[in-house]
């Protein structure tokens, strides 16, 4: 009181008489009445520190590192700065419940508040979900070790009134917090009041061995699970065949070693009654010796062989399990997939009707009973949530909420008038409405229904779909991944009726465009048979319009070709429809010649877009066509000027071989006259055409030269 109001209460509380009275009062309460304060119960491990309690800051031990800037709610730092902040120690302060004191470890936002003076000595705070760290043993407050501290988080701590009673609060439950006051790195959130705006389909996150996380939709996850099952089955079959072959070789070696025993006589065979002895005896000649056995011996032998087969099968299975475990641990094996389902929802604060901020809530491993509980347009009170940095996306807040093992959802009835200001039910948007000035969808997402008129870059990493509705309006949908990755090859086809949900509108321009652009992200849903009532109704209406007009698709293709601007012509047509580039004229590139002359094909004269054929779906044929198209667009090089060889006169002289002295020999008879050769045709030029050179049979020339040399030697 004296520190809070020094001008009024100064000299009234900290007097010797008041101190003695306080000591007497504490003795009566703790000794005579056996009552303990909140911090004493917590340090003696008789109560949990997670309850809501009011504490007073009575000292500062360490202020922690200096922050890079002021910390605000919903602050979002870069990944690098967040990693650095996570490794730095936080601030440490002393707090008291009016009886005893304990050190408190602060997180990053609270440390920044301490440095900014927002968390000062003498102020009171109310906190929930605190943790006792440093020592696991119960101890008295006066004998507490230096490492014993309370750990509190900014998302569960708020300033308290100056006259709030210290100690445990009368309501131990977590207090409600507005979503706009949460921090990305502020720890757990005790309680929030939300309204579910949108519910998205379940995704599956796979953690691959290299540390890469891959998110898949339901359709792509089913395909990946089948592929992994097939690979695993083939690997297990191959491994089992190797183990079985090795096991059979070992059994054959044991059988050969046992076959060297001596043969028994007929009297000795009749005396055998044990199945194992009979089996060892008949191993040398089973067909002959089994005919000498009686019924009892045959029954004992059959029983032993059956037990021996079961034992061998058990040993084979055990060896196969060991080999399978070793193969899974090794690099060449087929390990199990680490897949976790995640359910995402868009929510908003039920009490914030002005800002319009939307938050993303992720529920990992959602139980089966939770999905029918959380419905769009309903209000819930959620306890024990975690916060993190979310993806930078338009229309969404920086804080991302995540469910934990302790998260609980409580349904609350909300008045309809308050929900009308926060929630808008899903509708199937018309393509014409996407160009309107008042187009502001909830959560920045729309649901549309349309026929596929054209597919650009079908086998590429980011294909674009052009859809048409019943009014011959169009919209382009760019997909964030390839159709193969999303397992949509059999769904997205030309002239297919598609229902698309959770599409994000593109950047709005001041001038309306004839073909609005949409983006299909990881939360988008493609379906030819939707389950949602609004999409079913829209599909039925559009299907009836298309069936009543035989030229619906032809008209749509012609109209779409007239809407696409000239610079998007190559993107709209398939690779086989793009003509070769013009040749270089006067040193100009094809692009420069087109720009300078201004000769462009009128958009209205463009032929309708061809539909995809089965050949176009083959990736090899598409790649080959793209390569040929690229080569056709390369301009021909200019003709080369002839090279003038400036040779010196000495190089043009005839080569004379060196002479040597020889012993004179008798003259040889003159050789027969060679057969007359054909006169060479008159040379019109010094060069021979390449076609004539290619037609010369060099092998015949070599054979002729070889025959002449042999004739000369024989002579």
TrEMBL record:
Residues 664-683 have a biased composition (Pro residues). GO terms for biological process: double-strand break repair via homologous recombination; regulation of DNA-templated transcription. Residues 642-651 have a biased composition (Low complexity). InterPro entries: BRCA2, BRCA2_hlx, BRCA2_hlx_sf, BRCA2_OB_1, BRCA2_OB_2_dom, BRCA2_OB_3, BRCA2_TR2, NA-bd_OB-fold. Residues 205-246 form the Tower domain. Residues 571-684 are annotated as: Disordered. This is Tower domain-containing protein. The lineage of its organism: Eukaryota, Metazoa, Chordata, Craniata, Vertebrata.
